[in-house]
Target: PH domain-containing protein
Amino acid sequence: MFSSLIISGSGIPRSATTDSIQNILTGESYFSSSYLVGECDEVRVSPVISRKGYLLVLEERTAGWLRRWAVVRRPFLYLYNHERDFIERGLINLTTSQIEYDMNMAYITKDDLLDDAKTNSVHLISKNESIMSPTSLFPSKVNMFTLITNTRTLLIQTITEDGSDIHDWLYALNPLKAGEIRSRLGRKRRTRKLDKLEHYSK
Model:
């Protein structure tokens, strides 16, 4: 068996590990000491659950829409396979993520949704269905938004077919963004009402 000890000039045996550490400290290694020092930031997770429920998630690495149980505890969004799943399947830092929502879809009518579904052969999705094809949507995109992280982009749909809970989810994920969207939607609705009144008065 070979010994791992090295005899120094003073005759005192030293281990190779000791020499390696000394070389690093004196700058004699190919690697700087910063490579060996880990860094971490403490993130305090809120004990309050802002919102929870099922969402449909689509991203590049998935073959289709995945039904996931989502829990918002700021600053994170936790994704599970189902509500009784104790293993976190996904973790998204909301403080470093962006949300995009097409506000024009908020004005689409129910008749337009049905016509669009017939034209594009879009079928309604069962709430109990767990995996759908990427082209399968709810009756409209009114219940859909995009969540952009530092490493990936997710397309997310809420479960309600009429998109009635979309603002609640947006508010839980990003209150400032949700407030901005609601304010802009309110201004657009007032403008549309005025345009209709002017049209009927002519």
